[in-house]
Amino acid sequence: MENELFMNAGVSHASEMTSLSSSTSPAMLNWASMETHQVEQSITRDVPRDCFYFEKSTEQSIFGSAPSSHVSSSPTPLNSNFSGGGGAGENYVIRELVGNLGYVGDIYGAPPASIGNSSGSCYATPMMSSPPLDAFSGDSRFAERAARFSCLGNRSFNGRGAETVPINGELTRVSSTSALKPPPAANRPVNLPGKEKLNPRSVLIPQLPHLLIYQRKLKRRKIRIRREVETQKKMERKRNHLIHTKILSMSGLDEAKPPIVTVSPNESVRREKISERMKLLQDLVPGCNKVTGKALMLDEIINYVQSLQRQVEFLSMKLSSVNTRLDFNMDALMSKDIFPSSNNQQVLRLESSSDILLADHHCHTLQLNPNDSSNNIMNPMETSESRSFNSQLPTLAHFTDSISQFSTFPGDDLHSIIHMGFAQNHISESNQVHSTSFQGPSNQVPSHMKAEL
Amino acid sequence: MASADKPINTDVPEKDVFALHFLQSLSNLRRQNTFNSPEKTNDRVKKIKKAAYVSMARAAGGTSRLWSRALLRRAAKETNKVVRFSRRKKRVTWLRRRSNRRDPVEEEEKEAERLRNLVPGGGAMETSKLIEETAYYIKCLSMQVKVMQCLVDGLSPK
To answer: Full-prediction pTM beyond 0.80?
Structure first.
């Protein structure tokens, strides 16, 4: 949580970025790399030289070491970006990028400052790494931006690649998920006919992810601004209403109150309860430690709940778009996606490795290299084992995957998870066959883990 | 009376429970024939959202929490299902709603009003209970968000 706050402090303004401390700057850099990597993925991989310089200068300026001098030595886009000057189209885009890094890095709930949020709460919605979403309509500005962005992307930020220094587990995950996605199949069929006009997919295939990212960001900002306005209006209306009701109630008779658990004479008790629970909430809601006083805290809490609800809505929108395209493969889902919470570095390794992995190899490697983010040790082992596994039934791959995923967890979780995973497989019969056949090795895995632990 | 309070329990079940419920609901949704039609995006989104909330309510302990009950009731209303909750609670909540309508005079009650609008089933709760429910709700919501985020990350093309 502190990391998130830290990042929040860092990301709030693009102008502040030059003064970031070095501890947050790698974080920023990771976000930058992630965002830029998204840009890169969709675009052809020819890398002109100046992109590299751009990256270098980005690093330097972010690390805040004599920013002005370095910035001056860097190519102009960066300069204008950080000095806030308008410039060519790509400068504008870069500034947007950098300014929105907070959103980008927000995938895992890190709260950047929301630009449109007047109350200054720290919560924003998650931004996806690179999924092309067609569900949003955009303005003509987006097409314009897309064009700019495309020319930016052509001289863009390759070279970060998949090597990301794990600064903290969260960011590693962020960069890993983006870095490891291969270039999206930009030729994927679009299923939303209503969006043909605004959908540049047929015309400018490479920009689509960025276009959508911008669309999403702006749309979220709009939604947020609208909601702020709405809530303020609501508050106004409520206050007026309350004044009326107060007048009425004072004039009217006070009916005998029905028996409630806490009787009104025990005001102090009630207040104590309330304050006690507020303390509970304070721990839950990030950023509430500084704020004292019930009203402000309640404001924060309300904003947080609203942002969470918006996140749910947003993610459901995203899910709906993603769902149409892909096969909803339950066992794959259960294995890969749901449980990367325990150890992010291990997940990095797991996700980056090939599909077919042996569970016990995972155990070995995990014991050996708990903090190693490279995949070197695993890969040679993988390939040999994968060949042998390949000779077996192909769907077993899913289960090896699931088991390898599960092996990152302590042993007692494994049984429940595996059983759950297998319980999900009533969809296809063949899976059931494989599941039974696989019970043997799966049972071995937890014992393996336990022995080594 | 303050000393007689039992410790407030806001433990939320593990992430896998949420994941399980959500995936089940999603697979149910998927089995519907109309689900994958690309034209009705908004419908699909709404359905998924509703599925998310309902699965979250179920994962968080079904009817053991006021907000989850209210969520489920709301969802059931839309599908015209009959949802049975213990009637005694219903009466109490109705009375409480009446008393709460008269309350919001103080500053904190105004804030509590806003919170009540946000948290499902909030209108029927007293302020202290509301705050407790909010804490639990926030926890569940964040779990749900994490689960969905993981899902989306996993499903989005690699």
So the answer is: no
